[in-house]
From TrEMBL:
One GO molecular-function entry: chromatin binding
GO CC, one annotated term: nuclear origin of replication recognition complex
Protein source organism: Alca torda
Compositional bias (Acidic residues): 216-231
Record keywords: Centromere, Chromatin regulator, Chromosome, Cytoplasm, Cytoskeleton, DNA replication, Kinetochore, Leucine-rich repeat, Nucleus, Repeat, Telomere, WD repeat
Gene expressing this chain: Lrwd1
Name of the protein this chain belongs to: Leucine-rich repeat and WD repeat-containing protein 1
PROSITE patterns in the cross-refs: LRR, WD_REPEATS_1, WD_REPEATS_2, WD_REPEATS_REGION
One of the Pfam families matching this protein, by short name: WD_LRWD1
Amino acid sequence: MSKITTELLLERAVPRSTRLRKIETLNLSKLQLKTGDLDPRLFSRLRHLQKLDLSDNLLDKFPNSLTLPDLRVLNCNNNKLQDVTALKQFPLLEELTYENNVYLTLNDDYKVMFLLQNLRLLNGKDITKLANHVRRVNSRKLTSKVTAHWEKFFRDQLPEKYTAEQVKSIKKKFLKSVQTNVVYGPSSLSEFTRWRVKMIAEELLACSLGLDLSTDPESEEMVDETEEESTESPREAAEDVDQVVYIYDPLVTVTPSKRKRNHSKPGSGNKRSKTQANAEDAEPLHFLQCHSKGNSREDFKTQLWSCVFEPLLDCGARKDPIMSSSRTVATCGGESVCLIDCETGTVLKKYKVATEEFFSVAWTTLTMVISDSRKKSHNILAAAGRRGIVKLIHVAADFCYGEIKAHKKPIATVCFSPTRETHLFTASYDKRIALWDIGIPDCDYNFKASQLLVLEALSIPLRMALVPTCPDQYLLAGCEGGCFAWNIKLDKEQKSRPFEAIFQFPDEDGGMTTSHRVDGLAFLNDDVVVSKSSKPGCIYLWSWSRSFDTKGKGCQRTISAVILAELEWSPTDLSYLTLSTCPAKDYVFCGDEKGSVWMYNLSNYTTAWTSAKGKRSDRRIPPTQILKWPELRGNGEQLTEVLINNVVSDPTFTFLVVLTSVNITAIWKKS
């Protein structure tokens, strides 16, 4: 990594110079520079610098005190900038380019137009006329709306003699209300509008009323015409303390309890298998309470349902999954969706819809056209729940750019096709699974979604899994009334399709049945399916190919699943405690009704199962390890009766994310 020194600055000056104060043009492109390399003390000596090229580096922001009083031209192309507000420190800037910074959006263009009064060229385009409109007309309209909002709803709430606490309270209410209710311009500029409204509101209170508004930055809110949505950036979590567990949340204080190390033996009365002997321990890392309704400190009731790791853009979403997942995970439950850094426990972003209860999230990577017809990959998060609406979120831009009104009843789960990046499946309480093409948004976030298929189910679909060997042809779904398969091939004319097969499994009486709730479903590899629960205390592993081959070419719709093995699990009859797999490591995970996570390392079995003559394992396979729920206290009381709704690992099984019924996201790390 190149570090900036006096010698480097003199060498990269155009032309080369012998004194820093004489440099007027400086080229620092293609040096792999990060924000920390821009030393304000060194840059303060560039008193006469007018042109600066920082293109093709790794900058995510600008330091606030570079002190370049004469800077006129700045090139920041091809970096990782996430914010432009620090550019206001260059008031004489006339030309600015920051193309191919994937986190910057149209809203940032409007921010720099407002902040830099002398700016004439932005990304090579003359913006003089538009900038004047933003600085004058836009500001005048917004100021009028903000003032009217204060006069109508808040002015009379402030008494003649007020305390500091009263000022703080009314300021908080006013800023939240005005950002929610003052709307102006197109929805694609809603972030800029909120930013300006907040600025104008603070100026109104400070100037007109003489209030001191120097406060800590508060999170901005994402708002559309009908509901309140917000993107929050909570403060960084405290560091983990050895042998102590905290719930890391900016809004909640939880008493720490000593951690109990997990060395428990799984399954009473079972001998320790070879698989168990080779178990790799996982230890608790973070416990987060970040989905609270209304940000309430008292909320230990919100159910958390779904989580999925974000793919890495650099590796491509369609390549080897082991190399294409980050340590960032999206979680959902209650009114919010959170993005969490599993290593640090930091809640990176929070997206909230006050009228929603989110049940499912899924990632895809879209190749979008940016400026000058160039293409760039962006991760898009789909989130859905009780309202039957799919929200489409461009996470890097902190922007919910659209929604699809997919169903009139709640959506239980969603998933993207692994081969077609715009194809999204939505499974609903209306007993239908719909396939959508969500389209690709243009540079102004205009997009067009279309429905391609409707799959009819006999009961509510709870879990979906595309068959790995033919993901464009067959879809499996675990439903309230059984396990079904559909032909989803798009070359068929029929847009509405019944199921093609229903699978039957052994029941508690030794017979076979198709009528049972299947609330857990996932593929362990290209052929082995893992499902629960046809009967309490059991998870089945079965062969897709050997089961489906029995269907032949006839019209048979009921198929016996070819069972490979049974996994020993909790005897509970509680439903919706779902399972997941880590195919690269041959692991299966499933939580229970006591806050424990059952882990099964099946690497010693998979080779035998994939052979054509692979036989069923005679005895139930016990878990390799059971992770016990540690002692945690919230509001002075120990948290008990914890249900594990979902457990998901990243593809390398470095992190294990556990979602609970008590509004806690637990993150474990393989030691």
